[in-house]
Automatic annotation (TrEMBL):
InterPro entries: GMPPB_C, Mannose-1P_guanyltransferase, NTP_transferase_dom, Nucleotide-diphossugar_trans. It comes from Streptomyces lunalinharesii. Residues 4-236 form the Nucleotidyl transferase domain. SUPFAM superfamilies: Nucleotide-diphospho-sugar transferases (SSF53448). Belongs to the transferase hexapeptide repeat family. Pfam families: GMPPB_C, NTP_transferase. It comes from the Bacteria. This is NDP-sugar synthase. Residues 254-333 form the Mannose-1-phosphate guanyltransferase C-terminal domain.
Length: 360
């Protein structure tokens, strides 16, 4: 296995304001852009060549990762002029692949944090003789996902998109966003128009009698599509619950990047990460949160399960719980923001202006 496609073109609408200036895969998780973790895990599994299918803020990726040599990879970038969907994005980068028609190509969604055994998925694909193999994960509540029932041999029997009624929920196995395609299958996806791999490509292949194999791997798996999930994923990377060779330091209760200034009596817990040039003031308490580069947490502030954007400032004695603060925003002293509230980039909240906010 030497090649992979990473789908990193989404707008990250559910993650705003984190994605106003930054594409979702480039938002820092555990101190580095989330995409770094995916690339590092692919390389550890033997992947050498990765094509990034970009679209939204496409110009951000290449200046950061370059040709990929720093990660031991050969990276290429293909930008969609118009959004093409997951299947269309895969087809759009096919010309950059070097694989022969019968060779396997790994494909990853750019917003999934997982402990998937990548080599095992490729081995399953090869030994089963499948045309496409899918990583499946089991979840307690599958209503927000696409269900993928399989027979006793793991062969996929149907695709059920986001079922709602009990009768529709025939399995707890969901499409976990990682696939192995035979190169020849990629070449059958229509060109020049949007194609959903979940709603069109997979059901179409199944209807045509293709062999689609599922591999259940219920190790760590998290869809980072919401701010709350992203914060949790970052903390899990720091804590070592989610595996990644790209965490820039030892796993533990906290990760403080070089150049950060943390007061001696500040308390950082729960997988908190403090970015470069960020400042944590005296007596501050930060739990399970991500404080991005250049942000300031003033003395006595309490921050829990929150993300503080680059260059943002949190005033003294302010309490944040489950909040997302956009880049450059200022939350003055003595505020209390809870329950999933999002503060937009560059916003300025005066001292004592907000005492509580429920889910937004």
């Amino acid at each position: 296995m030497t090649e992979a496609i990473l789908l990193v073109g989404g707008k990250g609408t559910r993650l705003r304001p984190l994605t106003v200036h930054t594409p979702k895969p480039m938002v820092p998780a555990a101190g580095v852009p989330f995409l770094t973790h995916q690339l590092a895990r692919a390389r550890a599994a033997g992947v050498e060549h990765v094509v990034l299918a970009t679209s939204y803020l496409a110009e951000v990726f290449e200046p950061y990762f370059g040709d990929g040599s720093a990660l031991g990879l050969h990276l290429e970038y293909v930008t969609e002029v118009e959004p093409l969907g997951t299947g269309g994005a895969i087809r759009n980068v096919a010309s950059r692949l070097h694989s022969a028609p019968g060779d396997p190509v790994l494909i990853f969604n750019g917003d999934i944090l997982t402990g998937l055994d990548i080599r095992a998925l490729v081995d399953t694909h090869r030994t089963s003789g499948a045309d496409v193999s899918l990583h499946l994960s089991r979840v307690e509540d599958p209503r927000a996902f696409g269900l993928v029932p399989t027979d006793d041999t793991g062969r996929v029997t149907a695709f059920l998109e986001k079922p709602q009624t009990p009768e529709e929920i025939v399995t707890d196995q969901i499409n976990a966003g990682a696939y192995v395609f035979n190169r020849s299958v990629i070449d059958t996806i229509p060109t020049g128009r949007p194609v959903s791999v979940e709603r069109e490509t997979f059901p179409g292949l199944l209807a045509d009698g293709a062999h689609l194999q599922g591999m259940v791997d219920s190790t760590y798996w998290l869809d980072l599509g919401t701010p709350q999930a992203f914060v949790r994923g970052s903390a899990d990377l720091v804590l070592g619950r989610a595996p990644s060779p790209a965490v820039p330091g030892r796993c533990g209760d906290r990760l403080v990047l070089a150049g950060a200034d943390v007061a001696p009596d500040a308390k950082l817990t729960g997988g908190t990460v403090v970015g470069s040039t960020a400042t944590i003031g005296a007596g501050a308490r930060v739990d399970g949160s991500a404080v991005l580069d250049g942000a300031v947490i003033e003395p006595g502030a309490q921050v829990r399960d929150s993300l503080i954007g680059a260059g943002a400032r949190i005033g003294a004695r302010t309490v944040l719980d489950g909040a997302v603060i956009g880049d450059g925003a200022v939350v003055g002293p003595d505020n209390e923001l809870r329950g999933g509230i999002r503060i937009w980039c560059g916003a300025d909240i005066p001292a004592g202006a907000v005492r509580f906010s429920s889910d937004q």
